[in-house]
Hints:
This protein is mainly α. It has one domain. 55% of the residues lie in helices and 0% in strands.
Amino acid sequence: MGNWDELNHAFESAGDIPALLAELAFYPAESSYEAEPWFSLWSSLCHQGDIYSASFAAVPEIVKHLTNNPLNKKQIKLLVRTRLRRATHLWHLMENNL
């Protein structure tokens, strides 16, 4: 990713996201999603279900981390389920012009 400072997340410029993504390498797979750095990433990139320019830019890095560590199956399932629910909700809104 290029210049994260040009992207936004829920709270500010996304300049803090690269450091949080780097921390994923040290995240124990058995930890809760409420542990850092996941909590800060999730709060910033998908705050109350909203997505931002930094959300899209972070996806490849998050997926790379999750797929590089087979112990992360729990996090992968959570991420996929959550995104599918959100996509289904958005699709429903679009279909009904809401």
